[in-house]
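User: Can you fold this complex?
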Amino acid sequence: MRRGIAATALVAALGVTLAACGSDSGSGGGSKGSGELSGTVTWWDTSTVGSEDKVFKKVAEDFKKKHPKVTVKYVNVPFGEAQNKFKNAAQSGSGAPDVIRSEVAWTPEFADLGYLAPLDGTPALKDADDFLKQASASTQYKGKTYAVPQVIDSMGIFYNKKIFKEAGVEVPKTIAELKTVSATIKQKTGKTGLYLRGDDPYWFLSFLYGEGGDLVDAEKKSITIDNPAGVKALATVKDLVDSKAAITDATNGWDNMQASFKDGKVAMMINGPWAVADTFAGKEFADKANLGIAPVPAGSAGQGAPQGGHNLAVYAGSKNLDASYAFAEYMTSAETQTTIAKELSLLPTRQSVYIKPDVATNELITFFKPVVEKSVERPWIPEGGSLFEPVKVEYTKVLTGQTTPEAGAKAIGDSYRKLLKDWK
Amino acid sequence: MAVDTPSQSVAKAAGDGVTRGRSRGTGDNGGAVRRSLSTHWYAWAMVAPVVAVLGVIIGYPLVRGVYLSFTDANERNVARSIGVNEIPATYEFVGLDNYVDAVTGSQFLATLGWTVLWTVSCVAVTFGLGLALANVLNRRIAGRSLYRMLLILPWAVPGFVSVFAWRFLYDERRGMLNQILSGVGMDGIPWLNDPTWAKFSVIAVNVWLGIPFMMVALLGGLQSIPGELYEAAEMDGASAWQRFRHITMPGLRSVSTTVILLSTIWTFNMFPVIFLLTRGGPGEATQILVTQAYKFSFEISPRDFAQSSTWGVLILVLLMVFAAFYRRVLRKQGEVW
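Assistant: Here's the predicted assembly.
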């Protein structure tokens, strides 16, 4: 008899384990009949932890004030991992959020893979004419809209005014000036000029655009990274590191960059509006006036910074689409964007927000607005999110001297040719 | 993953096995099975749940992985159903293409080279240090149990915790190691930023993590060697080195062959150390086969399931060949396995 019990227990235990594997953490709800939204909306935010996330969490949870029966579950996923994390969860259908803050290049990719719900004709796209054209571009895929623009950004050079004054230098306008300025800073103060982020290819783009290069040319369907311009850009960043004008790291770049700059160990870094709130938390910038921002230094072909930003996209497999649409609308509404712009100096995507009194006078926003207008648009193709990994590997290899700029550029080009089948 | 399982091919393979068995002309194969079932039915019943669990947890993914390695499956062409979007599978069978690409491409061979170097150096250093420490702790020294406790500590701390601690120590600008170096007036070392130093650093961490296991296993082996042997050898005037060479080493042989095999297999697939310390960087300098296979499946986009499976199967084949070869060498030396 005892044997029977043991066997039953075993079978039961097995059943439980197997059932646990396949369970799905759904969030039921919706607007059944009564017209009032209910249920849970899980939102994956990718903003900077320790500064931006606090504000976003509060704003997201205030959604309850408008819809008392909806609970917003705020989850902060580190930006560097969010793309893969979302793809893993979205494909298996378990553990995916209802709404994700999707980087502009990820949006067409997610849409192409069928992970996003089309938003045309849903409440999510309220007052869509108000959005900046530049911001809406990345939300379109094959004639449908798959996301709502939340913020838009570009990059500039952040500098520590105190160190500049001490060294008696002006903000560099070109890469050549950047080198002389760094040398003077080192000589006068013993500090390093620039922190160059070496583990994230996004930080390489302004150097690439500055030489007149680009990753790919989507109109001509050709791969341009291994042109002379791309090689020259790789050589430029390597030279900055080799000549000690800049320091870099192969891992942990974000934390090291922010720490070095906030503690006044380096005088400059290239960064975007998303770093402002975190930078102000540093001891060097207790007096906010110490932070200066200028356009990125120009390469031989002029100035070029990438246009970036984030959209809010709704997961196609969400169990609570109605509440998710409403949440996406709320997070991108003029009212919310005004709050975010005031608190975090992030650039709104709605034209109507720029003329709001507190936003129009915000120094950072008024600085970045023209920069964004001039910034280089990336190709909004489904492969847009795949273009960075090959650059990341070779960029780091070039900086650490494992390969030459020529070989690095060629290796990136070769992997693009595998990815984009019929491109030249 | 709503892809049709290759159950037919599995069934066929099993059928093949049966026919092959019969065609051997023994003919009593079925009878033997029946006999063993009737006499040992109880044992079979006890084993069945384990077999079922292993089949579900290991067998199915293994078969599926092998199957995927013969296709061109990636994120874009596997079947998925997401809410309103139903997307059917469109990947195709490509035969041995993936294997040909892997074995003829430079990436696999370069990664394999570093993986072998990493495995050999980790196992050799860990074994050497573990043996030395075990010998020290095998004597009657004051505070022996305290030392043993301390040396087992790396084993007791969860792996990822230690690796993160090491990552902080290694940090080029804020890490403790470089602060100590600059304290004594030396230049900081780019522990994880320089390809060669990064290789050294990951090996150092893995050795640190691996010593406790080696030490405990070898200590157990040492304690099973009878003391009389040493006494007799001393009576005959053997030196300390001779005693070690002719009593300790042969006495430890069975333990050490086992721990070397285990530790080789573990180190070959030591995912967390590489992944958490360097993510395979700088560039791809410290990427071992396992972390690279993970990268194909989870980090690049579109995620390349086929290539990842191919590398996984190749890893399995390599380790099986190694284990078989190792056994053969041991057998030649007269070890019973």
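Confidence is low (pLDDT under 50) at residues 1-33 of chain A. The radius of gyration of chain A is 24 Å.
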